[in-house]
Write a structure and sequence with these properties.
heterotrimer; A mainly alpha (564); B mainly alpha (198); C alpha+beta (348); A: 564 residues; Cytochrome C Oxidase, Chain A; 18 helices; globular; B: 198 residues; Four Helix Bundle (Hemerythrin (Met), subunit A); 0% strand
Chain lengths: 564, 198, 348
């Protein structure tokens, strides 16, 4: 096969796959297992997340079925307590982190014109240790023994407050599965954080100064820094818990003068930045998708960067808003109220910037954009309920109730999951070389949207009416029954939406129309490669002159670098 | 395309991005710094709060000798890397082995101190809050020293086999950042545990 | 937008409209007499929180309406129409003035909210208790509440009696919060915000109920298997009612000779390992004090009403009422069970 010079320069070098014959499956499997290619690792991360999404979803369904009516006996309290512990732990550490870090792993080198990440083997190690951590957590169903030896999987809540996790109250090994699983997945995340920072700082293509890289890269740079600083406290907390449980230590042993509140401090110093770690890649998706589907550049790039950096720093100072009810002095409560409200400012500004991007544009309502628009509405509401919770006295009523559960699911499902869906649809053609079915995607969107709102809008109400969280059943006659039923019904719609989504992905992968390099008429470097990109990404390292190199190519009469 | 490429290359000032290894090591050190910070916070939080058992004042003595060894080892590792960068292999070996010996002396000092604490003073990780926080913090640091010494030892062996060349200086310089960090942590631990906490 | 999308969009919009209109009505209707909801405060701290929450809701409500209007307007006005040519719209990169404005405004809003909030935090947390305040010590256990009135010499469980504190006779109740095992949280929404009970830590809260009645709450910090049924009842008695209750609780436990057999079973069958009854050798502290057991409306910390049948079932098989509670299965013979129940039912 003759490859012309033009083909080489333009990067249309054919895919290696097409030249080979069909490899035996053992060889293909071996390639995937031993890969250090960031694209394959990204896909492995995403698939891992999708697998655990199913498990976490089943756990949520069990919870909702049990809570649909008061005094239900669908599951025992022991099983229920395991369900909500595993649901939370799975969704954060085995679904959200892998999927988000996976997208970053896949996209960052492509967006900055690099060949791979800074440390490909560390990348592979991070993935496999994260995968192992997930499996270890689920092995607890088979291998553990929980509260009073009555269970198997951990049942101490996803934040496992001391002293419930001490050997006295948590006999058997179920808490150990939780501790070790988080320890390992934390190491994996830190490895990926190091990789992100080193890649973005050291491997940008010529011309791509920090001010000229896509917002996605900037946000993941901040993310990398946050992961490095925030996950470490979690790792430490787990080590301390292990020392308490196995070496007779007293870090959180209240009988020896230890402090249960210290665990809370250490956990939430991790836990609060963690939720920003989860949302920042989603901001990154929105910042790539909304401009393309509005046909305009992102409004206010420098401020978006500054706001994210601000969030990165301030988010480390708000953690004790999870502890407003533990009896801190009034000055401490006031400080954390202030810091929490403060961090809402750069976060809120971003919403305005996205609206500013859409303003004056030509909005195209394909699936990625639909999910992003829903994200804007929902993230706004989530932010506002967050402001409510930030007001410490208001939190004394709302904290630890279903209002908080509604708030954070609004962020995680309404904000994070919606943008993840948007990213799936946006990048599916690039990653697989196929187009998905827009019709099925729209069905997915509307079904899931209705389900989401049925469940999480109304979930605020039992919280306002005094329903605490983490209860396996509730008393009738307190005004909570009807709302819980509606909430559970919404879950069914969400399941339907996700089934349509999975079906769409699977059937489009095998039977979708072939997608070109640039199905969305976008402007950043990843769209200049083949779909899917060859293993080396770029035949020739690109050189860029602005934030939208493909816009410059497509509009040579009006390139961005005249204005930036 | 080729014409514009030439233009662009002229317009873009020549830049040197930092090395991946150095940035990676700095990030790793940042993570470790966060880890040590939390252990130090726990130590300070629980200072004076033990309900029983030996107190720091009773059982701790300023570890002057081993601290000096560790501080000096930072100087020797710096000298070693500088020597290697100037292709002075003999002096590299001298300073590198000195670092190894000083590091081992530090570990020996820790081992000695712990033997006395555990066998004679009756202080273990499970005795009281002081015991828990002391052994975790100093133990974590000693663990980091051990890992560093392993790398130094492996390199020393490679050097004996004449496998270390001038081109390795950059990588060893990056490793030395880790060693300096471990040293810096000891300065903090020394201050917090042996000076402030007593 | 395709035809199906348009239909689904109208369906969704109608759903939103119906919900928005119907929800308040549904809440009002389903809000039962005993809904522990913060929007019907009956005590000063709860009132302060309520007032603050209304301010916060108003401010966030305004922000919501403004931004949502902007968003809907943008979506409708700037959608790409079928007849649009393929020219890109004007490429606007930003605007310093607009961005400054929408940074300054939120900052002002935050400052207003913060100062209003700080005032309420201080008013509630740093309030000085008058000398006549009733002192209660609440100790959280897995899965029940111990209430002690140190100055009155009373020990009871699960149902907290406090005096009315109205304008004519203000008498707040100051509650010290301790824990015997793991973390719990005291939450009676109509009377105040929640405060945690944490082992090795002394927390403090206060309430001053303005209206007599029974106020419901429950433990609000996950404490183990039966966290869900660690329920709370606060009985706000008028002044005389409270004095009557207190003097009854101060008396020694009834020692009715007709149930001597049951008393013997109680002392013999290891009940006294966990429970105490004043005037008897039973001085256990692991479980609730039973000296005036029959003065309570519920058993098992609210898990069941205090009836003959429930009491029998509870002693015979606690797992049936509260699976995972720490009350062991006593395995009494039918005869012993009946006599012990008869004994307990005399403990008024």
């Amino acid at each position: 096969m003759i490859i012309s010079n033009e083909a080489i320069v333009a990067g249309t070098y054919p895919l290696e796959r097409q030249q080979e014959g069909r490899q035996p499956i053992s060889e293909r499997l071996h390639e995937w297992v031993t890969t250090v290619d960031h694209k394959r690792l990204g896909i492995l991360y995403i698939c891992l997340g999708l697998l655990f999404l199913v498990f976490g979803g089943i756990e949520a369904l069990v919870i909702r079925i049990q809570l649909a009516v008061p005094h239900s006996t669908f599951v025992s309290p022991q099983v229920f307590n395991r369900m909500f512990t595993m649901h939370g732990t799975t969704m954060i550490f085995s679904v959200a982190m892998p999927i988000l870090l996976g997208f970053g792993t896949y996209l960052i080198p492509l967006m900055i014109g690099a060949r791979d990440m800074a440390f490909p083997r560390l990348n592979a190690f991070s993935f496999w240790i994260t995968a192992f951590a997930g499996l270890l957590l689920y092995f607890s169903f088979v291998g553990g023994g929980g509260l009073y030896g009555a269970g198997s999987a951990p049942d101490v809540g996803w934040f496992a407050y001391a002293p419930l996790t001490s050997r006295a109250f948590s006999q058997g090994h179920s808490t150990d599965f939780w501790t070790l699983s988080l320890l390992l997945s934390g190491i994996g995340s830190i490895g990926t954080g190091i990789n992100f920072v080193a890649t973005i700082v050291c491997m940008r293509c010529p011309g791509m100064t920090l001010g000229k890289m896509p917002l996605f890269a900037w946000l993941n740079l901040v993310l990398g820094g946050m992961v490095i600083l925030a996950i470490s406290p979690l790792t430490v907390a787990q080590i301390m818990l292990c020392i308490d449980r196995y070496l007779g230590g007293h870090f959180f042993d209240t009988q020896a003068g230890g402090s249960a509140v210290l665990w809370m401090h250490f956990f939430w110093i991790f836990g609060h930045p963690e939720v920003y770690i989860l949302i920042i890649p989603c901001f990154a998706f929105a910042s790539e998708i909304i401009p393309v589907f509005s046909r305009k550049p992102i409004f206010g790039y420098p401020v978006m960067v500054a706001a994210t950096v601000c969030i990165g720093f301030v988010s480390f100072s708000v953690w004790a808003h999870h502890m407003f009810t533990v009896g801190m002095v009034s000055y401490a409560n006031s400080f954390f109220t202030f810091a929490t409200m403060l961090v809402g400012i750069p976060t809120g500004i971003k919403i305005f910037n996205w609206i500013g991007t859409m303003w004056g544009g030509k909005l195209i309502f394909k699936a990625p954009m639909l999910f992003c628009i829903a994200f804007l509405f929902q993230f706004l509401i989530a932010g506002l309920t967050g402001i409510m919770l930030a007001a410490s006295p208001f939190d004394w009523q709302l904290g630890n109730s279903y209002f908080v559960v509604a708030h954070f699911h609004y962020v995680i499902v309404g904000g994070i999951l919606f943008t993840i869906f948007a990213a799936f649809y946006y990048y599916f053609p690039k990653m697989t070389g196929r187009s998905y079915s827009e019709k099925l995607a729209q069905w997915h969107f509307w079904l899931f949207l209705i389900g989401f709102h049925l469940t999480f809008d109304f979930m605020h109400i039992p919280g306002l009416l005094g329903m605490p969280r983490r209860i396996y059943t509730y008393e009738p006659g307190r005004g909570w029954e009807d709302w819980n039923l509606i909430i559970s019904l919404g879950a069914l719609f969400q399941v339907a939406g996700v089934l349509v989504f999975v079906f769409n992905l699977a059937s489009s992968y095998f039977r979708g129309a072939h997608a070109g390099r640039d199905p969305w008429d976008a402007w950043t470097l990843e769209w200049s490669t083949d779909s899917p990109p060859p293993s080396y990404n770029f035949a020739q390292t690109p050189t860029v002159r602005s934030r939208r190199p493909l816009w410059d190519q497509k509009h040579p009469e009006d390139p961005d670098w005249h204005y930036e | 395309m080729s014409n514009t490429t030439a233009e662009i290359v002229d317009l873009v000032p020549s830049r040197r991005l930092p090395s991946r290894g150095r940035v990676g090591m700095i990030c790793f050190i940042a993570a470790e710094a966060a880890v040590f910070t939390i252990f130090v916070v726990a130590y300070l939080f629980y200072a004076g709060k033990s309900l029983s058992g030996p107190t720091p004042r009773e059982v701790l003595h300023l570890p002057i000798f081993m601290s000096t060894c560790l501080i000096v080892s930072s100087l020797t590792i710096h000298a070693a890397v500088k020597a290697l960068a100037s292709a002075k292999t003999f002096w590299f070996n001298v300073w590198w082995f000195a670092t190894l010996i000083l590091g081992l002396a530090f570990l020996a000092g820790t081992a000695h101190e712990w033997t006395i604490l555990i066998r004679h003073e009756g202080l273990t990780i499970s005795t009281n809050l002081f015991g828990t926080t002391y052994f975790s913090l100093v133990g974590l640091h000693a663990f980091h020293v051990t890992v560093g010494l392993l790398v130094i030892a492996v390199t020393a062996r490679a050097s004996l086999a004449s496998a270390i060349r001038q081109s390795h200086a950059e990588r060893l310089d990056i490793f030395s950042l880790y060693w300096h960090f471990v040293d810096g942590v000891w300065v903090v631990v020394f201050t917090v545990v042996y000076v402030l906490g007593v | 937008m395709t035809g199906i999308s348009r239909q689904l969009l109208s369906l969704f919009a109608s759903f939103c409209l119906v919900s928005a209109l119907g929800t308040p009505a549904l809440i009002a209707q389903t809000r039962a007499l005993h809904s522990p909801d913060m929007f019907h405060p009956q005590s000063t701290p709860a009132h302060s929180i309520f007032d603050l929450s209304i301010l916060v809701l108003k401010v966030t409500g305004i922000i919501f309406v403004v931004v949502v209007t902007l968003l809907i307007y943008t979506i409708l006005k700037y959608r790409k129409r079928a007849e649009d040519n393929d020219h890109e719209p004007p490429q606007v990169f930003g605007s310093n003035q607009i961005e400054l404005a929408w940074t300054v405004l939120p900052t002002l809003v935050v400052l207003i909210l913060f100062f209003s909030t700080a005032r309420v935090i201080h008013a509630i947390q740093d309030a000085k208790m008058p000398p006549n305040a009733l002192e209660v010590v609440a100790v959280g256990h897995q899965f029940w509440w111990e209430f002690r009135y140190p100055k009155l010499g009373i020990v009871t469980a699960n149902e907290l009696h406090v005096p009315l504190s109205d304008a004519s006779q203000p008498r707040p109740t100051s509650i010290t919060l301790l824990s015997a095992d793991t973390d719990h949280s005291f939450w009676v929404p109509q009377l105040g915000g929640k405060v945690d009970l944490i082992p090795n830590r002394i927390n403090q809260t206060w309430i001053d109920p303005h209206k007599p009645g029974i106020y419901l709450g429950q433990c609000a910090q996950y404490c183990g298997t039966q966290h869900a049924k660690m329920l709370l009842r606060v009985y706000v008695d008028e002044h005389d009612g409270f004095e009557d209750w207190a003097s009854q609780q101060q008396r020694q436990a009834v020692n009715d000779p007709r149930v001597a057999a049951g008393r013997r079973v109680f002392l013999k069958a290891a009940c006294m390992n966990c429970h105490s009854v004043s005037g008897t050798p039973a001085k256990g502290v692991f479980g609730p004090d039973l000296s005036h057991f029959m003065s309570r409306d519920t058993i098992a910390s609210g898990a069941a009403s205090n009836t003959h049948e429930n009491l029998k079932r509870w002693i015979q098989d606690p797992e049936a009422i509260k699976p995972g509670s720490l009350m062991p299965v006593m395995k009494l013979s039918d005869e012993d069970l009946d006599s012990v129940v008869a004994y307990l039912e005399t403990l008024r």
